[in-house]
């Protein structure tokens, strides 16, 4: 028998490049450049953390939902977000990331989550507005990720997007119901829209000129559109929806531009975005503290599972 020489690093790299070029998926068994692995782990972990931290703002209203129906819908939605987190932590694990290590990085502030979840939920209308705008923005971001070059991430995104569209619809339906209700309810919706509109636009990340990783992520087909392209798509999508609801988007500069075929909109307050990323948003400390407490409270479950696994191993 003749021994077959293992492929050289150059062969592996060429294979990786070809996979990307042909729009095929990179799978866990495949060799990938270190930079690709690091970028994917960072992106997937940040996404997973966002799903898990994102349970808190709305979770705040589960015990105070105005009816059994609204409570059941909200409960289902928040549980979906937990599921999204779990798929994504599993996808990160296929790249060699360790779940416990990712959790540790989240609660010690070494990895980020979406800045949107550092805003408070002040009324039940926030549940509707989060579904409509925040889950709506998440869909704009995530639909193109169903074609991301990393297979496990792309596949988890397909199921997540289906559930996100339910989230968006339940939010819109709640707002529509409130808008058909009393004057007080309509005011509550408008007030919530005023607070969430600008932070929703920030969900797409810094402007392209200020987003140093975008070019590499696009080349690796990890990302399919730039932050500004996705933000524009979201604005164009939201304007007719706001009109259907009968709410005003809080931007006096927002108007249709026939030359561009898009809506123009006002300047985003990037200073506020940066402050929140630095940890100085209204709820940063509270969100992390809550997550840390939940992690500590779950220590006995992890210990019991480990003891059970080692007993089974002995047998
Ligand atoms: Fe989600
Ligand atoms: Fe969602």
Question: Please, could you describe this protein's structure?
Answer:
It comes from Amycolatopsis minnesotensis. InterPro entries: Aromatic_CoA_ox/epox, Ferritin-like, Ferritin-like_SF, PaaA, PaaA_PaaC. This is 1,2-phenylacetyl-CoA epoxidase subunit A. The chain has 315 residues and is mainly alpha-helical. It has helices at residues 9-21, 34-53, 55-59, 68-93, 99-107, 125-142, 151-179, 183-202, 214-219, 227-245, 270-280, 284-297, 299-314; strands spanning 255-257, 262-264. A two-stranded antiparallel sheet has the order 1-2. Helix 4 runs antiparallel to helix 7, helix 6 (125-142) packs antiparallel against helix 7 and helix 6 (125-142) runs parallel beside helix 8 (183-202). The radius of gyration is 22 Å and the shape is globular. The relative contact order is 0.11. The model has no long low-confidence stretch (mean pLDDT 95). Bound molecules: fe (ii) ion (2 copies). One fe (ii) ion is lined by residues 81, 135, 138, 164, 167.
């Amino acid at each position: 028998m003749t021994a077959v020489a293992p492929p050289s690093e150059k062969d592996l790299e060429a294979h990786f490049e070809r996979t990307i070029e042909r729009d095929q998926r990179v799978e866990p068994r495949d060799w990938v450049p270190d930079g690709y692995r690091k970028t994917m782990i960072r992106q997937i972990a940040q996404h997973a953390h966002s799903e898990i931290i994102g349970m808190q703002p709305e979770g705040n209203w589960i015990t105070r939902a105005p009816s059994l129906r609204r409570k059941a819908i909200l409960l289902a939605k928040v549980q979906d977000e937990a599921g999204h987190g779990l798929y994504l932590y599993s996808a990160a694990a296929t790249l060699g990331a360790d779940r416990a290590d990712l959790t540790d990085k989240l609660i010690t502030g070494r990895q980020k989550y979406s800045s949107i979840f550092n805003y408070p939920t002040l009324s039940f209308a926030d549940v509707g507005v989060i579904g409509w705008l925040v889950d709506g923005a998440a869909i704009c971001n995530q639909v193109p990720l169903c074609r991301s070059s990393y297979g496990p991430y792309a596949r988890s995104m397909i199921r997540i997007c289906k559930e996100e569209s339910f989230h968006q619809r339940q939010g819109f339906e709640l707002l529509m119901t409130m808008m058909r209700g009393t004057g007080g309810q309509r005011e509550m919706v408008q007030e919530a829209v005023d607070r969430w509109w600008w932070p929703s636009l920030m969900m797409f990340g810094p402007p392209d000129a200020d987003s140093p990783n975008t070019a590499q992520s696009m080349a690796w087909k990890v990302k399919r559109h730039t932050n500004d392209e996705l933000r524009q798509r979201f604005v164009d999508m939201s304007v007719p929806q706001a009109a259907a609801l009968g709410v005003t988007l809080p931007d006096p500069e927002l108007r249709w531009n026939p030359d561009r075929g898009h809506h123009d909109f006002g300047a985003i307050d990037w200073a506020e975005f940066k402050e929140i990323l630095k940890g100085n948003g209204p709820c940063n400390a509270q969100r992390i503290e809550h997550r840390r407490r939940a992690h500590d409270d779950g220590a006995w479950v992890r210990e019991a599972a480990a003891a059970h696994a080692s007993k089974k191993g002995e047998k």
